[in-house]
Inverse folding.
């Protein structure tokens, strides 16, 4: 095995370690001047505010960045006009300022070099780093074709690098948002209603009478607008039904908490469908008018009684009946929520189908308190020459596998990077922008093998993440508070757009992604695709086409447009054609049938933990986004590590004490790189353990978060792939406790 | 005029937005806080309950911290807000000891600090930073003497509790249950 791509830290050793545990004190010491101001909080009038939309997660709330007279960013406050946030950012958005102030940020371009047989990074100028990336892109294009250059991305930088890659001749791009996250629900809902759910979800929680959550933990998952609407649902005494093996925050606020045996949700969903149909409490009029396949469905679920489901799910039959009736009573003002991260067990598109069917039986799609018809404003694209047509794309490698994948599958792009997989078309080099692959993609071994196999990796990020350790060239991006980006136009009740503009100059030598992409483009002879000096010209052009201007948007930040697509909801008995094969809601999915998949969802049993092992469940904390935020000084201050939640009975069995550090070992013998603290709590089932995703960072340059907590992603080595769309089901992993130090070798 | 706050524990999700918003608004140094979250878990699986609440200085009418302050730095101003004049504070910490709610902390610059009900914002007719940011809108603030204030309306028709009533401090924070 080649060692060239050893994981290496971003610069010389040392300093970081001392700061661990002392961060708060160090911080105060360094920022004495800042601390001294505290007697006089700066009033809003003494500051200037600049519009932005948040990039701490991908809900993209619009807000105002407040800058004081000495050009310090003091705070970020939500934009009151914004339907994503109604003037209130979530804790991560409020703490977004820490993304800017973090001293661990990438400060200059860095290039990998070997000195006396030792690999390291050296500082480089922008022109040297860009020349190098461009020359590699030329090499790849000449020797293998541009298609062999792949992009992994997440968030705003993605748009700029997609444009670059398309101009260059490749559309091999993947983001974890598809295969690792929400792909299955888009497939399931699209087969049923001919429409994706998308983000933000068009769930009309604001007006719902009954909200059903399947493992989705809103309130810990802090997608802002939804959480705010859930709060109004609580206030209105709406019925909330939460299905989760863990007493999540929202479960504790629900009228019904169904502490289901993990991996059995589909059985519960099918039995709910059974009750609605066989108790004759579904929305007959709606189904008759809008749906096809009812008789097949009825027949299909005939034996899927609550008693049948009880044996599988451990949920009492009377609870199943009672909750089904609650939904029917609320119909059509009821939402069986599709969830967001739903890549769990490999049959996820089918579970999502069952959710979609359930909603149809309740008549909630297109109804007040159910799902509204979303609408977005179309942003005209800035004129540029036509993109060349790539000769192949990731889909051609699949040989008909995963026919319903609509976006690049990250794990397939990784496999195409490894010659041993013998894919028809090989990936030779990557740009990774804004996604920390090693802590995001399950099966780290696959990632590592791929990283070792490719000829070249360029990483664009604001922080020295685990991924930057694999780079040949690191390009430091400035944070969202320091740059222009593309216009936010996300579907909502009212179409709207939001502007992100810099509030301050980029710190150190960091640069916006639009600039990096343009510089690379020009070096590749693709200057005509980047026909502007500053991205603000692009924005002004686009905004003027839309009847506003950069000038106006800089003052208002967000603009709401009138709807053009018709009302939010279906009128009573209104004619409506769905974008499916039949033009109807397909209870029986002909799209699935055409591809040789079950047109009606079937329950399959998933593997269970062996004696002494516990199912690894992971989730989110309200103050963190994946692994992006754990080093953010403000957010680290709110939560500085994760812990493993253990039921007291299990703790007894293992003699575990509160706060004790353990290592976790999974079914394949993989041990967590770092130990994790035990949290003994009644909030988790005895057959499972739980941890917050995004900790266990392995880059020492992250002085606050390095080595804190364990990474769930590293313990996820059994991947149950969704045959329809390539989703990587991650909840079939089981861990046991190691109470003595297994002497893990830390990689850097 | 008597300022008070109601915290709706049925809605609070413990997200800590109120904490970080207070830190940025009031320049509270990282590592310290004027407000914080308490999570209580009761019962055993699957009959478990959680209470989440956002806590801060109770701005007690009968405030032990003010009584024990040797310099008069801790005092009560109009509206019943308990304040600390930083340059009169000698950092002796007697108030920290006396507070039944652990609401005060020693600022690294050598004085004692705590929640001011965002007095500088109230003066300008703005609401407190934590109330303004809370995504679940579970914090209600205002004049308890005014029946139409946000806090008075929140307290009406709901049951509530105060913390450590046995301390006799007459706290002005009310937790809706
Ligand atoms: S939900 Fe929070 S982190 Fe996400 S965009 Fe909104 S404020 Fe930012
Ligand atoms: S911001 Fe609101 S919901 Fe979040 S912890 Fe504070 S009080 Fe609770
Ligand atoms: S009222 Fe102001 S000072 Fe007090 S906790 Fe809230 S934000 Fe902080």
């Amino acid at each position: 095995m080649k060692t060239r791509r050893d994981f290496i830290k971003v610069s010389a050793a040392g300093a970081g370690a001392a700061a661990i545990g002392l961060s708060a004190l160090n911080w105060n010491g360094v920022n004495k001047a800042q601390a001294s101001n505290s007697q006089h909080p700066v009033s809003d009038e003494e500051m200037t505010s600049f519009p932005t939309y948040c990039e701490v997660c991908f809900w993209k709330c619009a807000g105002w960045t407040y800058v004081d007279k000495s050009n310090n960013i003091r705070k970020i406050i939500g934009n009151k006009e914004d339907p994503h946030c109604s003037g209130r950012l979530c804790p991560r958005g409020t703490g977004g300022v820490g993304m800017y102030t973090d001293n661990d940020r990438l400060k200059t371009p860095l290039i990998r070099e070997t000195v006396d047989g030792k690999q390291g990074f050296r500082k480089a100028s922008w022109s040297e780093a860009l020349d190098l990336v461009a020359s590699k892109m030329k090499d790849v294009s000449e020797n293998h074709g541009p298609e062999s250059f792949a992009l992994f991305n997440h968030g705003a930088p993605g748009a700029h690098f997609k444009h670059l890659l398309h101009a260059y001749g490749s559309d091999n791009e993947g983001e974890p948002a598809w295969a690792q996250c929400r792909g299955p629900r888009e497939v399931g809902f699209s087969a049923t209603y001919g429409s994706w759910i998308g983000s933000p979800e068009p769930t009309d929680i604001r007006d719902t009478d009954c909200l059903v959550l399947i493992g989705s933990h809103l309130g810990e998952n802090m997608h802002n607008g939804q959480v705010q609407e859930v709060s109004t649902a609580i206030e209105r005494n709406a019925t909330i039904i939460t299905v989760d093996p863990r007493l999540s925050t929202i479960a504790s606020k629900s009228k019904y908490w169904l502490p289901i045996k993990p991996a059995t949700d589909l059985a519960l969903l099918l039995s709910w469908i059974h009750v609605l149909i066989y108790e004759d409490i579904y929305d007959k009029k709606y189904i008759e008018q809008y749906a096809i396949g009812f008789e097949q469905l009825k027949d299909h679920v005939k034996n899927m009684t609550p008693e049948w489901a009880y044996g599988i799910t451990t949920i009492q039959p009377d609870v199943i009946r009672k909750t089904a009736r609650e939904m029917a009573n609320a119909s059509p003002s009821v939402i069986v929520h599709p969830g967001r991260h739903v890549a769990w067990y490999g049959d996820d598109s089918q579970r999502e189908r069952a959710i979609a069917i359930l909603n149809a039986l309740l008549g909630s799609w297109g109804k007040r308190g159910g799902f509204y018809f979303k609408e977005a404003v179309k942003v005209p694209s800035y004129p540029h020459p036509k993109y060349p047509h790539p000769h192949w794309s990731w889909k051609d490698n699949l040989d008909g596998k995963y026919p319903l994948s609509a976006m690049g599958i990250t794990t397939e792009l990784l496999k195409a990077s490894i010659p041993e997989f013998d894919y028809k078309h090989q990936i030779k080099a990557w740009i990774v922008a804004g996604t920390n692959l090693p802590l995001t993609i399950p099966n780290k071994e696959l990632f590592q093998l791929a990283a070792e196999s490719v000829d070249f990796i360029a990483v664009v990020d604001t922080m020295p993440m685990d991924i930057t350790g694999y780079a040949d060239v690191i390009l430091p991006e400035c944070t969202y508070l320091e740059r222009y980006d593309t216009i936010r136009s996300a579907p909502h009740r009212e179409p709207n757009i939001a502007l992100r503009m810099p509030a301050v100059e980029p710190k150190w030598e960091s640069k916006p992604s639009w600039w990096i992409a343009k510089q690379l483009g020009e070096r590749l002879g693709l200057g005509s695709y980047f026909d502007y000096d500053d991205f603000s010209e692009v924005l002004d052009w686009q905004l003027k086409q839309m009847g506003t201007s950069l000038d106006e948007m800089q003052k208002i930040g967000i603009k709401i447009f009138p709807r053009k697509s018709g009302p939010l909801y279906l009128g009573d008995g209104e004619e409506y054609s769905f974008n499916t094969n039949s033009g109807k809601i397909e209870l029986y999915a002909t799209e699935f049938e055409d591809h040789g998949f079950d047109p009606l969802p079937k329950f399959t049993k998933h593997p269970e933990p062996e004696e002494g092992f516990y199912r690894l469940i992971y989730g989110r904390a309200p103050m963190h986004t994946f692994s992006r935020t754990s080093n953010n000084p403000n957010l680290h201050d709110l939560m500085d590590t994760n812990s493993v939640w253990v039921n007291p009975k299990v703790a007894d069995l293992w003699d575990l004490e509160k706060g004790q550090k353990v290592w976790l070992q999974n079914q394949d013998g993989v041990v967590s790189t770092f130990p994790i603290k035990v949290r003994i709590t009644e909030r988790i089932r005895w057959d499972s353990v739980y941890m917050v995703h995004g900790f266990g960072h392995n880059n020492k340059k992250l002085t606050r978060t390095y080595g804190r907590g364990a990474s769930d992603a590293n313990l996820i080595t059994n991947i149950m792939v969704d045959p329809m769309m390539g989703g990587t089901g991650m909840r079939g992993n089981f861990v046991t406790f190691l109470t003595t130090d297994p002497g893990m070798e830390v990689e850097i | 005029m008597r300022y008070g706050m109601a915290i709706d524990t049925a809605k609070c999700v413990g997200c800590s937005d109120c904490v970080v918003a207070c830190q940025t608004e009031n320049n509270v140094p990282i590592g310290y806080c004027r407000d914080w979250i308490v999570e209580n878990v009761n019962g055993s699986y699957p009959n478990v309950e959680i209470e989440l609440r956002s806590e801060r200085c109770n701005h007690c009418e009968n405030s032990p911290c003010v009584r024990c302050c040797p310099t008069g730095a801790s005092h009560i101003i109009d509206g019943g807000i308990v304040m600390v004049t930083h340059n009169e504070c000698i950092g002796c910490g007697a108030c920290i000891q006396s507070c039944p709610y652990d609401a005060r902390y020693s600022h690294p610059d050598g004085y004692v600090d705590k929640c001011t009900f965002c007095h500088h914002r109230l003066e300008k007719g703005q609401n407190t930073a934590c109330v303004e940011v809370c995504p679940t809108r579970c914090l209600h603030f205002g004049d308890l003497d005014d029946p139409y204030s946000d806090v008075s309306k929140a307290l009406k028709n709901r049951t509530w509790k105060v913390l450590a009533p046995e301390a006799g401090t007459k706290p002005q924070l009310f937790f809706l249950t």
Q: What stands out?
A: Chain B has a mean pLDDT of 96.
